[in-house]
Please model this.
Amino acid sequence: MLIVLALASVVLLGIAPEPSQAITIYTSWERHALVGSDIRLSCTFFSWHFVSEDVSFTWRYRADASRDSISIAHYGGGEAYTDNKGPFKDRVEFVGNPKRRDGSIVIKNLDFSDNGTFTCDAKNPPDIVGRPSNVRLLVFENLPIQAGVITGAIIGVVLGLLVLIVVIYYLMRFLVARRVFSLSVRSVPGLWGLCKGREQRPEPIPGTDTCLAKAL
Amino acid sequence: MLILLLGIIFLHVAALVLLFVSTIVSEWTTGEMGTSDLWKNCTLDSMGHICNAASTGEWIQVVQAVMILSIIFSFLSLILFFCQLFTLQKGGRFFLTGAFQILASLFVMSGAIIYTVMSPGWVPEKDTFGYSYILAWVAFPLALISGLIYVILRKRE
Model:
């Protein structure tokens, strides 16, 4: 058994592909933010090599309506450089820790004109082949409610009430049958004389008790 | 007797099918640009149909919830009908079935009313109501009549 496992692992390691030399970059897919707030766009990468001294991060921005992108932040050679001429002048700060493979930036005081796609490209020599990752930024005046939250809440509440009513109904029946509760019949002496000695089985809605009892 | 039974079941199933179609097909509003609501907005572009999720406004979510609830209640009512058919005593009334069906019709009505009142807020002037919306309004009286028949009906033999 063990020999088979050992052989299988050797075979698998033998035919396993060489670790690819491509670097994989991770960012969020889409971010929502309020006007006037700050947002931190995170960017990390995975590489088969140790973080080199020449690791570099480049952030580019492409507005929604436009086709070209401009560079807004760059980290290279141990130094971080941010936009000092373009639309993000003095609003971008490099807050990542390149030694920990983190190349995040913070954009302050967002405005509606900041809607667009931010691209993070990281290079970790000799690992330089990789696909840059995009994160879409949406700036809102008020944060909209996520799709389906209210829908689910309403459905849950109504169905919950239904279940609650059924449970209470069966609980009341159970308690009355056990004579923990006394029905109003007891307070009417004439009727109580009629029902005396007989097991009380209340049936507020004819037919439903047997039907529900069989169904549940 | 059998014909009556079949007729009632047919009416109920027809209302249920209308509810399903009205909820699932996303065509509460149609215009030249495309269709929209309840679940997604599709626009006809030069590149073909482009669909994205409907606006996440609060009222559209309420309409979604209410339509789904109406389907659930109508379906429960159908199950209860068959259940009560075999277990009800002679002369008994299908109260619970009728109650659930009437509740379902009330849900459809409130959903259609909410959509009618609130949709001018997010739909452009030129767009008209689509067939899903009309089906919702047709399903409401069908379900209501079906529920009332259940309440009036008495079990025989």
